[in-house]
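Moderator note: this is an archived Q&A kept for reference. The question asked for a predicted structure of one protein chain; the sequence and the answer are reproduced below.
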Amino acid sequence: MSVLGIDQITYVSDDLPTSRRFFGDWGLKLASESADALVFECLNGCRVVVARLGLPGVPAGTEEGPTLCEVVWGVESAADLDRYASALADQPGFVDHEAEGARRIGCTDPNGLAVRLQVTRKQAIDVECGVMNTWASKQRINQPSPIYERATPIEVGHVVFFTHDVNTTSTFYRERLGFVQSDSYPNRGAFLRCAPDGGHHDLFLLQLPSGKRGLNHVAFTVRDIHEVFGGGLHFSRCGWETQLGPGRHPVSSAYFWYFKNPAGGLIEYYADEDQLTADWQPREFEPGPTVFAEWAVDGGLDGHTRRQKNADAPQGKFLTEKK
């Protein structure tokens, strides 16, 4: 029994029209909309809901204003759901009810976030991905790597929250939901994955000296590094602002590109994270700029010039041409 991953997230927003345009440009499919909520889907059916701020029945967030207020994790079967219900029954805010046509159980985590579980609605999908040629392994023969004009995210891969007590909150996820710690910043940050076998992290908890609680970012998995770049360039052309990237995380090995999100926090395209098993031994890191990013472009790339922001567009037919 283990959690499979993120099935749905819910934002609260004070500007649904802007959120509609934002997530559409991001590459999500608009599945339904009303005056009070938007429902988007990733390629595998993972959902992103944006509800009107203050809408009755929507859980309160851990901070004021637009933010992420709920994470729904998927499990494999109704029997798994029963076992998790027993594990969470004594927790604050415990619920066992039907929502959006499915049974959901959940509670409030120690950080104040609404946590829910349901039998997964995501579907297995088959997508073509770029293959990397290395010195030791030439897997791409007579075939160029892909170039993406925009991204179509596969799923919500992980969420990151600021927490007032990283140790207590990470213990909840490990002991109640069966998460496994991948790596950590001792007493400052915990990288957690849903199961022993899986990507580097599905949840990252970060404790600031201020004790701030709230959303840091939501990360969307794309096919490969080329889609990180193609998606980011398209999103930049749409006029959305980069926070940092593209770049590469040394802790998880993933390539990233972060943008500012009007629905709260940041949003990330990422690909090529480490895959771990039960044999993995968690590491400890001291926080620092080069630990967060091995390299990164500050301010992003301009989607039109394909160069760093404020750099001149290329001139002539060849890079070596000079005026």
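Archived answer notes: Residues 225-237 form the longest helix (13 residues).
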